[in-house]
Amino acid sequence: MPHCIIEFSSSLDIPPDLLVEAVHHGVLESALFESSHIKTRALAYEYFRLAEDCNDFIHVTIRLH
Question: Quick one: pLDDT band at residue 22, thresholds 50, 70, 90?
Answer without folding.
Answer: very high
